[in-house]
Structure formats: structure tokens, C-alpha cells
Amino acid sequence: MTRNISSVLCCGLLILGGCHSSLDRVEAAGDPAATASAAPARPEFVLPEGTGIRVRLLETLDTKRNRAGDHFSATLDEPLVVGDRVVVPKGTRFQGHISEAKPSGRFKGRAVLALRLDSFSLDDRVYDIRSSNVARASAGHKRHHLLWIGGGSGGGALIGAAAGGGAGALIGAGAGAAAGTIGSAITGRRNVTLPVESTVRFTTRSPVTLGG
């Protein structure tokens, strides 16, 4: 008799335990917090290769003080859209670096400043990107130097002629040409400058997956 009562009690406990487990599963399934943690935080979007990105510089960059490898910050100047949805809003912060910074020589060569984008921050995440290399170059020196040297030579000739004419004019011309050359050397360097708030347009060189 005692053995039968014990068996009945054990069966009852097992049944009650199963009921509690079932209730726990039902409650977990109906718990919004549990459901939210299991679901993706946000859908995925892909910025395809070739997407245009126009940014606005937050600092001035130039070939006089900047060097290759220097980093810069910028903000997105127009939103990035996939389909009919804005996936990267205007004002998003971007980071980039100077891939080339070369001042011009005194008598020849152009100054060159080239930039690339490296990443941007969105929803507390940092996304790495590969962008095009955007470069700016200064104007050439040739006309500038002809004006300086030619002007100096002419001025020297006038001074020499006034001093005595003949040989004096030749001496003055030579002196003027030398002075013109020095002037060109002092002022002939050219720089490329991109002031703060300048807009620069890049394109992506590989897809960028957002969200997920």
C-alpha cells in the first residue's frame, strides 16, 4: 500500500514538472524582450561598388603643411540611398587620409594633393571602405617664370641704358635677368589648398554591407 502511494506521488511530481516547463517555454515565446534579442538588430543594406560619396572637409588641407599619411575628417554632404531608403544620412562622420602630398619645385613641377576615404561611423559602428583616389594639381610654372625673368631682364636693360647706354645696357639686362631669376625662385613655389568646408566627391571601389 505504501509503495503504491509513493508511486502515485512520483508520477504527480513528474507531471507538475512537465507543466511548469511547458509554461516556461510559452512565457519565453511570448516575452517581447526575448523575441527582440533573438531578432536581428537591423536589416542589411549593401552600398554597391561605384557608389558616389560627396563629403565636406572639416579642416583645411594643403601641400605646404600636410604630408602623405596625414588623416582628415569630413561629413557626408548628401545622404546615401539604397532603393528608396536612406541608409547613411547626411552629416555622417567620415575619416580619410592623404595618399599623396607633393609641393611644386621652384622652377618646374606641379604641386599634387590626393585624398582617400577610409571609414565612416554609423549607429555606434565603424565601417571600413575602399574609395577612389581623388587628386588636385596646381597650375604649371612656365608662364609665371617667363613673366618674372622677362620682366626683370627688361627692367635691367632700361636701368642700364639710362646709366650709360651701350655696354651699360647689356650689363643691366644681365643683372635684371639675374634679379628676375631670384624673384622667381623666392615666389615660384605653388601649393594646392583645399579650405575647410570644401566638398570632395569619391566613389566606392568595393561593396559595403551595412546593418545585420
Structure description:
There is one protein chain. The chain has three domains: 2-38; 45-140 and 191-210, Beta Barrel (Lipocalin); 142-187. Helix 3 runs antiparallel to helix 4 (167-187). It contains four helices and 13 strands. It has helices at 2-30, 32-38, 142-163, 167-187, and strands at 45-47, 52-57, 61-62, 71-76, 80-82, 85-88, 93-102, 112-122, 125-128, 134-137, 193-194, 199-203, 208-210. The relative contact order is 0.18. Strands 2, 4, 7, 8, 9, 10 and 12 form a seven-stranded antiparallel β-sheet that branches. The chain has 212 residues and is an alpha+beta fold. The two termini are 63 Å apart.
**What sort of overall outline do the alpha carbons produce when their principal axes are compared?**
elongated
Q: Give the averaged pLDDT, no decimals.
A: 72
The number of distinct structural domains comes to: 3
SSE arrangement, N to C = HHEEEEEEEEEEHHEEE
The fraction of residues in strands falls at 25-35%
Q: Under the CATH scheme, which class of the largest domain?
A: Mainly Beta
Please tell me the CATH architecture of the largest domain by its name.
Beta Barrel
Topology:
Layout lengths: L1 H29 L1 H7 L6 E3 L4 E6 L3 E2 L8 E6 L3 E3 L2 E4 L4 E10 L9 E11 L2 E4 L5 E4 L4 H22 L3 H21 L5 E2 L4 E5 L4 E3 L2
Helix pairs in contact: 3-4
Quick structural gist:
With 212 residues, this protein is an alpha+beta fold. Helix content is 37%, strand content 30%. The chain contains 4 helices and 13 strands.
